[in-house]
Structure formats: C-alpha cells, structure tokens
Here is the input.
Amino acid sequence: MNRTAGAQEDTAPGRTGRLRRFVHDNGLALAFGAAFVLAVAGQAAAGRAEFNSLLITDGLAPVDLPAYLTSSDFAVDVTENWQSEFLQFFLYIFVTVWLVQRGSPESKQTGKAGPESDREQLVGEHARDDSPRWAAAPGWRRAVYSHSLGLVMGVIFLLCWFSQSVTGTAAYNEQQLRQLEAPVAWSEYLLRAEFWSRTLQNWQSELLAVAAMAVFSIYLRQRGSPESKPVGAAHAATGVEG
Here is the structure.
C-alpha cells in the first residue's frame, strides 16, 4: 500500500514537470494560439451585433450566434484577413531568397542572395545525422522539401483567397436580395469593385507592415528578441539576430 502511494507521488511531479516543460518549450505557439481564439471569439460577438443591427434596420429578424458563425458574412470577414496574412508570409519567404536589405536582421547577409550552396543548406551529401530525412533524399523529395515552407504558405493563401471570393459572393448576393436586386455570379463578383476594395485594403496593410519591420529593425532594437539585432550591433550589420 505504501509502495503504491509512493509510486503515485513520484508520477505526479513527473507529469507536472513534463507539462511545465511542454508549456515552456511551446510558449510562443500556445500564447498566439490562445490570443487567436480570443480574437476570433471577440470578432464573432462584435460581428454578430453589427450584423443583427443591419438586419433589424432592414426589417428582418436577428440571428443567434451559431447561425452567424455559419453565415457567409462571418466567413468572408475571417478569410479575407487570413489570405492577406498568408500572402505576406508567402511573398516574404520567396522574395528574401533573392533580395536583401542592408542592416536588417530580417534579411540575409548581402553576399548570400540566392538559394545558396548544398553545403550551406546542409542538403544531399552535406546533410547531418539530425537533418530532416528529405534533406538528404535525392530527386523530387529534396526539391519539394527545399521549398515546402513557401509552397504551403502559398497554397493556404490561395485556398483562403478562393474561400473569400466564394463567401464574399454569397454575402454580396444576400445584400442584393434584401435590396430586391438581382444576385451576381461568382465570376462577375470577382470583377466588382467591392471585392477588390476588401482585398487590396488588406494587402496594402500587410505589405506596409513588412516593409516597416525590415527598415525599422535597421536602426531600432528590442533587447532579447530574435526579430531584433543585439542592442550594441552596428546599424550596417545584416542578418544578425539578438
């Protein structure tokens, strides 16, 4: 009896320690994941209130939260933000292969523009024992894995953009019908100013934010952040992270 109790006491601290280690090692993903959930919940609550206000103005009955979460209005608002974010990362991942910004930690060093050599990238015969398996694999597997980050970001962007266009068409047509006007086809909606206004206002903000980060980080510092150079690093130091 005592031995069993002792074993349980030993196991509990071990589980607690593993949980703490997991939280410590994955704090960035967990913190942003939690913030994302809270932001979506807040958007859903505020968006439903705004949506119901418009329905009441048009003489229609308001909807409950589940109905709003499955509506095209909520879906288009979510997907139009997602697609702009993934476009930002997709472009930045591929553009920074070839373009550099002297003095920015967000850039490679000025002499390393391009895909770099197999030795520098630790692929093929230069792969280490702890390298991902496809880094050493020949042919298409290495080629795909060598571009997998940008490809996945690009695919997610395209899926979100397509989802935005479909749900945007549905939301636009709902508004058309409430105003007793004819709905439009998906292909016609893609040519509408309303679609491109929603799209481009997100794209321009993301591109501005990336450009600002690349330039501001040349001269400004954030001690301890990998997105910043060390506080005492020279302004001209490029590709150096704190």
Remarks:
- The longest helix spans residues 27-57.
- The chain has two domains: 1-70, 81-124+132-242.
- DSSP finds ten helices and no strands in the chain.
- Residues 1-70 form one domain.
